[in-house]
Every structure is written in structure tokens, then in C-alpha cells.
Design brief:
- With 411 residues, this protein is α/β, with parallel strands linked by helices.
- 44% of the residues lie in helices and 18% in strands.
- Strands 3-4-2-1-5-6-7-8 form an eight-stranded mixed beta sheet, with helices on both faces. A six-stranded parallel beta sheet has the order 11-10-9-12-13-14, sandwiched between helices.
- Strand 1, helix 1 and strand 2 form a beta-alpha-beta unit.
- The longest helix is centred in the first third of the chain and has 25 residues.
Length: 411
């Protein structure tokens, strides 16, 4: 592929598996890829990563607590403005065929305006459902004017793009339910890249502590307080059970205080900081089990957590909240479900998994069926086909409009 692609994303690029997976897949086909992203500590002084050119603008610093809705908007709008200026500078030097914008926020797609006016096709990669996230995070009813406004903005943003990506079928169904046209989307799932997430050779031995691992974003919707309390209960049966949390988010300080208050500092370890993918491998490989304790709310019921798929790829048995989207792809033979928000049920499942080596092995073997059906190779090919089609269509709309204007003028 000879396309030149500009990506715009408000995230910690080295640690964002979906964005990196797609960018590096394009580079592997011969495409040239530039990424506008905020600077983060894990980025450091690097300006290239695996063949992808990085163009940091602004910073993405994790706040000590939760931001208000207004603070989120101020932060996001500031990045949109900086990214738009950076996109204009780059577009004046390079002929981009496609600009791919990764949400959130949806209106980050506005940063692609100048390259689009210069003829580039725009692809909006919709990672999350913003209206549902705000409804759950700020306890706003889905029928409220605020949520209706967000759905209207979402439709405008998707309408501005030439094409859009959804992350799985229930996610697409929700977007269509918001009033977006189904034929505007292609589903590209968050299947783990086997070059990063390979099957580990051996599980931890019976003499090692039974370490439950959670990695990624740390917020209230991820249910980690329940996980901490469940581990506290489970240790009444097995005192070698530990919990390791690796990541960052607006709930870190509260969880650290909870661990200290409950006297669990030698049981629960919270490592603050979002890690590049390369740094996660040794952490993942020493885990006895992965834990995905998300709460069940208007937003999370549409989540198919990437960490769940990464645990499956590595061969780590998983204890997971029972939510509709996860059950659309996994059953009881593949992951150990517990009732979302029920710390006692979670503790029982932790004890059962700690006790039963055969159960751990069976979960790993059964979960392989997901990877066989939804391999990254298959998702990658679908994604690259979308980029190729958009690159081939570069400037066609504007060329037609220019011809029509010229014909009317000369006529």
C-alpha cells in the first residue's frame, strides 16, 4: 500500500493497543503513517515507534481526581484546537490520502477539517459510546437534553467522516440506535496482535503466589474497589491470593487510600502509570489469572474490554463481570463469570479458580475459540481494505464539485 495516512488521537499512544495495532499494520503494508497525539511520559523523547512518525502536541497528564463535565470539555476542546493546527501544518507539507481520527471525543474529527478540504478522506474510528459514558459517569438520564445533544453531535461527526469503524457488533447496534446509518460503518474488532500477545510457555507454578492481574484504565466503572474487597474475602480461604493493578486513571488515589485503610498494602499492589505494550509482557506472564470486574451500567454493557482479549491471547484464565456484550462473545466454558458489583460472588469465584488447576486449564483452552473466530489477521485485512478504499477515493468528491463549479462559471 502506498497511501499516506495521518492519525489523530487523544490518548497515551505507546500504551494504546488499538491505535498502535492499526498504525503499525499500515506501516507493514508500505504506507506512511504520522500520528498527532499528546505527549506522555511513556513517549519520552521518541518521535518514531515501529516505523510510525509521532507528532506530539500538548500533554496528557492524569489528574489526581475525577474531572467535572466542563473540565473534560475544556481539556478536549483544547486538544482539538492544537491538533487542528498541527494537522494543517503537516497537510501543507504532505499529501495525505486518509486522515483517521480515533475517538474520544467524537468531535475530535473536527481536527481533520483542513486535510479534508485538501482532498483527504476521513475515517472516524469510534472507540466508545460517548453519550452512554456521560450518562453513566455523571448519573444523567439517557433521555435528558444533554444526552440527546451528545447523540446529535455524534451523528454530525459521523456524518462529517467519509466512513467509520465500530469495535464490535453490539457497539454498532448502539450507534445505529442513535440514528447513524449502518452502511457508514465497518466493524474492526480489538483482536490482540500476536506479535505482542503470544501464548506464554508456562503458567505460574503452584509454589508461586496466586496473582490476579488488572491492567489499563483505572476508574470507578472498572469495579476495582469490588475486586479489592473480594480479594480480602478470598484470602480467608487462601492467604497466597494477591491482586496487582497496573495503570492510571481518576480512581487511583481513592483506591490507594482504600488499600491503606484496610491494611492490604502487602496484598494489593497498585502500579501507577500506563505502560507501553512492550513493558506489559513480563507483568502479564506472571499472572495466575486476569480479572475484569467492570460494573454493569449504561456504558459498560457495550464494552468488550481489550484486556479480556489480551488475557485470552496469552493463555491467562479470566474472571469477568457478566455483562451483555461480553456474553455475546464468551460463555461459561471460556471465562468464569460473576455477578457485576457482587464482591462476595467474585470472592467465591476467585477461591474456586485458586483451588482448581483443571478449571484454569479448561478456561484457557475453551477461550481459544474466540481467537480462532476473531483473529487479528482477519481484522487487520478488513481494516486495511477500508484504508485502501478511502485512499483510492481521495479528493473525488471535491474534484467533482470543482468541475461542477467550473462548468457553471464558464457556462
Amino acid at each position: 500500500m502506498s497511501a499516506r495516512v495521518l492519525m489523530i488521537v487523544l490518548t497515551n499512544y505507546p500504551g494504546d493497543t488499538r491505535v498502535r495495532r492499526e498504525a503499525e499494520a499500515l506501516v507493514a503494508t508500505g504506507a506512511e503513517v504520522d500520528v498527532i497525539c499528546p505527549w506522555t511520559p511513556s513517549l519520552g523523547n521518541r518521535r518514531t515507534l515501529a516505523g510510525v512518525r509521532l507528532c506530539p502536541t500538548g500533554t496528557l497528564e492524569q489528574e489526581g481526581g475525577e474531572l467535572s463535565p466542563v473540565a473534560y470539555i475544556v481539556r478536549d476542546v483544547g486538544f482539538v484546537a492544537r491538533a487542528a493546527v498541527q494537522a494543517l501544518r503537516l497537510a501543507r507539507r504532505h499529501r495525505y490520502d486518509v486522515v483517521q481520527v480515533h475517538t474520544m471525543p467524537d468531535y475530535l474529527v473536527a481536527a481533520a477539517t483542513f486535510p479534508k478540504l485538501m482532498g483527504a478522506s476521513v475515517l472516524l474510528d469510534v472507540h466508545d459510546l460517548v453519550p452512554e459514558l456521560y450518562a453513566a459517569k455523571f448519573d444523567v438520564g439517557e433521555a435528558s437534553p444533554m444526552i440527546r445533544l451528545m447523540r446529535f453531535v455524534e451523528r454530525l461527526c459521523i456524518g462529517f467522516a467519509d466512513h467509520a469503524l465500530a469495535v464490535h457488533q453490539p457497539h454498532l447496534d448502539a450507534l445505529v440506535g442513535h440514528g447513524n446509518p449502518e452502511n457508514k460503518f465497518t466493524v474492526v474488532m480489538n483482536a490482540p496482535d500476536p506479535s505482542f500477545f503470544t501464548r506464554r510457555a508456562d503458567a505460574p507454578s503452584a509454589s508461586d503466589p496466586f496473582v490476579l492481574l488488572y491492567h489499563g484504565t483505572i476508574s470507578r466503572r472498572h469495579g476495582l474497589e469490588n475486586a479489592i474487597r473480594a480479594v480480602q474475602l478470598a484470602r480467608k480461604s487462601y492467604d497466597d491470593i494477591r491482586l496487582e493493578i497496573v495503570g492510571d486513571g481518576d480512581d487511583v488515589d481513592r483506591l490507594l487510600a482504600l488499600v491503606e485503610e484496610e491494611g492490604l498494602s502487602d496484598v494489593v499492589e497498585i502500579q501507577r502509570g500506563l505502560r507501553p505494550i512492550e513493558d506489559l509482557k513480563p507483568i502479564l506472564e506472571r499472572a495466575a489469572a486476569g480479572i475484569v470486574p467492570i460494573v454493569d451500567n449504561a456504558f459498560t454493557r457495550f464494552m468488550l474490554p481489550v484486556k479480556l482479549l489480551e488475557y485470552v491471547a496469552i493463555g491467562i484464565p479470566v474472571i469477568c463481570s457478566s455483562t451483555p456484550t461480553i456474553r455475546a462473545y464468551f460463555d461459561e466454558s471460556m471465562v468464569l463469570f460473576f455477578r457485576s458489583g457482587d464482591e462476595r460472588d467474585l470472592a467465591r469465584k476467585i477461591v474456586a479458580l485458586r483451588r482448581d488447576v483443571a478449571l484454569r486449564r479448561q478456561l484457557v483452552e475453551s477461550a481459544d475459540s474466540f481467537l480462532k473466530q476473531h483473529s487479528w489477521e482477519r481484522e487487520r485485512d478488513r481494516y486495511c481494505e477500508v484504508i485502501e478504499a478511502l485512499a483510492a477515493a481521495r479528493g473525488s468528491r471535491f474534484g467533482k464539485r470543482r468541475r461542477q463549479l467550473r462548468e457553471r462559471t464558464l457556462g
